[in-house]
Amino acid sequence: MRAILEIAKLSFADAIRNKVAYGVFTFLLLLLATASALASVTMGRTELMIMDLGLGGISILGNLMAIILTIQSLQQERESRTLYVLITRLQGRWKYLVGKFLGLAAVLSIQIIMMCLILSGCIAIFGHIFWLSFVQACISTLFEIYIVIAIALLFAQSSSLFLAILLTLAVDIAGRFTFVIQQLGEQSDSTLVQTFTQGMYYLLPNLEAINLRNQAGYVANIPWHELISMMTYSISEIVFILLIAAFIFGRKNLA
Amino acid sequence: MPLIDVQSLHLTVPTGHIIQKTKTILHDISFSVKQGTSTAYLGTNGSGKTSTFRILCGLVKPNAGQVIFDGEVMRQGLPPKRFGFMPEHPYFYKNLTPRELLTSLGKLSGLPSKGLKQTIEMWSEKLDFTQVLGQRLSTCSKGQAQRVGLAQALIHQPDFILLDEPLSGLDPIGRACVRSVIQDEVKRGATLLFSSHILSDAEAMCDQVVVLQEGAIRYAGDIHSLLSHDTTWLIQAQGKPLWGQQAGQHTGIEISQSLDGIWQIRGANQEVRNTWLQNILSSESTTLVSVQAEQQTLESAFLNLLKLKGDHDASHS
Predict the structure, then answer these.
(1) What contacts B67, CB < 8 A, 6 or more positions away?
(2) In degrees to the nearest 10, what's the CA dihedral of A64, A69, A72, A75?
(3) Fewer Cβ atoms within 10 A, N terminus or C terminus of chain B?
(4) What is the tally of structural domains in chain B?
């Protein structure tokens, strides 16, 4: 456990100082400024519109940060040969991946929470903030980001940076349409297509199932047991993806 | 019993894109490293030195063969707490300071938190990078990063030290400093295996040599045996050259003329030397100036071994 925490600390310390992480705050501020400007000329619930746009923006930026930071971090560690001195100190390569996941999840958690706090301040300027649904939406965004980090760790093992980003983005996007993929399969007459789409439905992480941002837009509170089951599903997905990543990483020649 | 026993390592890597081919990197590599010795692992670029080190570390799995460490077959690389590894040209996390890096790596190697700060300061003083201890690694020079790399390999005082090009990128003072620290570790009782292209430094640091060429072992053994085995002789003579025709009859003989007109005949075969001496002494037009045995350096022995000496001398002249 000590080894995992040390890897997590190293990853955290390196990623928190990465300039990519600060650049996105500028984008967020621009997004909020745009949302506020739009909201001021819109009739109706201004604060809900800002919340809707803001949470969507945080999710997109969070996803991009998770992909870039994770893949860049792993690739840089390999190029700088830091990976070698870390791996040779560990009994089991899986500890490196778990430590890496925890370190990056901690960095991104801080950034997502900070962005959510900025957004809540913005909403409060224009009207009443519905804390419960807002916090629930923020939690769901955090778990969505954790899953994306795990996916990025799986594909970051590819020797090509471009391929790693492309594959992670593909799974990230496909994970938002798993229900559509399943429905498409059901409409097909081909057994092969049905089997394939069914397989994809179960294999891909269902990122839409853990998206509570729409409910927040309608000020609809989610019962806590549903929130807990959403978190349980997310953790299971993360464990599943990390197990696959560790299996591949454990057998990979690090040349 | 050797500390490390490398047995019949064979490694191939896939090459090509559409049509998969394989390239042999290591071919039946076997050597052993005795406890408390310092072994130089030498070879030309691409001869397989780094690949061997990566196999020892458990980073790469060989196609065949095994590594035995202290009597036990290693399946996942060497035991982490008993060995220290420095990769070639390490530059680590650019956003971290050497102090932060060494603290984490020290803890990963099992060092207690208490006293770790003093240990890091001790190593930074020994390896002369105290001035950059609190600076980001991105601001460190190549030589400073190299010293940090060595410090992380030695910080937990391992039994076995594996260093890939520890002297590259260092100025002469840096090389002397690093050499002295490594020699101190061997005196402490650690076993050292290192690769280097700076053969004069390697000669000063090692007592065993393994020479690799195109993935196969060319020599493995004592450095003194290698140097004495390859001792050459030098005959210097003046006058009319009588060896114009003879020179071509003997392989391994080199004849050159210095600016002052003295001929130099250099070779390794003692019988050939005697024949040459007889010819010169019996000739009226040629005078013998001197006969001497030349002490081989590791560099010349290495080049002889790899049959590159002729090219090397030609490029020097």
Answers:
(1) B4, B5, B6, B7, B9, B55, B56, B73, B74, B78
(2) -120
(3) C
(4) 2
**Is A213:A52 a contact under the CB 8 Å cutoff?**
yes
B290 to chain A, minimum CA–CA distance in Å?
53
Number of separate helices (H) and strands (E) present in chain B: 10, 14
Please state, in angstroms and as integers, the Cα–Cα distance from residue B82 to each residue in A89, B113, B162, following that order: 10, 19, 11
Report yes or no on B21 lying in a domain. yes
Residue A121 CB partners (closer than 8 Å, separation 6+): none
Do B104 and A82 count as a contact with CB atoms less than 8 A apart? no
CA distance A181 to B291: 88
pLDDT digits (tens, 9 = 90+) for A133-181: 888 889 999 999 999 999 999 999 887 889 999 999 999 998 888 888 8
A252 touches chain B (CB under 8 A): no
Render pLDDT for B126-137 as a digit per residue (tens, 0 to 9).
999 999 999 998
> What pLDDT score was predicted for residue A199?
87
Strand partners, B29: B9
* A87 within a domain of the structure (yes/no): yes
B91 and B18 in one domain? yes
Residue B182 and residue B205 in contact, taking contact as beta carbons nearer than 8 Å: yes
Q: Is the CB of B142 inside 8 Å of chain A's CB atoms?
A: no
Structural domain includes residue B301: no
pLDDT in tens, A79-90: 888 899 999 998
Contact B161, B193 (CB under 8 A): yes
